[in-house]
Structure formats: C-alpha cells, structure tokens
Design a protein that fits this description.
The protein is mainly alpha-helical and 79 residues long. The chain is 89% helix and 0% strand. The chain is built from three helices and no strands. The protein is flat, with a radius of gyration of 18 Å.
Length: 79
C-alpha cells in the first residue's frame, strides 16, 4: 500500500466511525423526544424528518454537482 492509500483508508475509517457513533448518541435523545411528544405526534415527527432530509439531500446533491471529485473531496478532507 502507498502512503496516500493508507491516509485515505484512515480518514475513511474515522469518518465512518464518527457517523455511526454520532447516530448511536443521537438516537436515544430522538426517542426520548418522541416519547415526550406523545404517540399522536409521532407521524408528524417522521414526516418532518423525511422532508428535512429530502431538502438537505437535494442541497448536498446540488453542491456536489457543481464541483469535480478532484476538487470536492479534498475540500472536505482539508476543512
């Protein structure tokens, strides 16, 4: 393996680890908010989450479409 490949592998592992660990930290908090809001509000919470993620995904896709991979990925790593 080349040094660049090891660095990319390490960064990929760190990103994936941080995403999963943040999900498992946020999930109990989300469940507590859902329980506190009551069962009757649960469909609205899921709908709100869906709409928010659709908007965020569309914005991210528009941002990624403007840059080439060679320019976009290093900008994420260097920040």
């Amino acid at each position: 393996m080349k040094a660049e490949e090891i660095r990319a592998l390490g960064l990929g592992f760190i990103y994936y680890f941080l995403i999963l660990s943040s999900y498992y930290v946020i999930r109990p908090i989300r469940d507590d908010f859902g329980a506190a809001g009551g069962i009757e509000n649960l469909p609205w919470m899921f709908t709100g989450t869906l709409v928010t993620m659709l908007i965020a995904n569309a914005l991210f896709a528009a941002l990624v479409a403007r840059f080439s991979r060679k320019r976009f990925i290093p900008s994420l790593i260097d920040s």
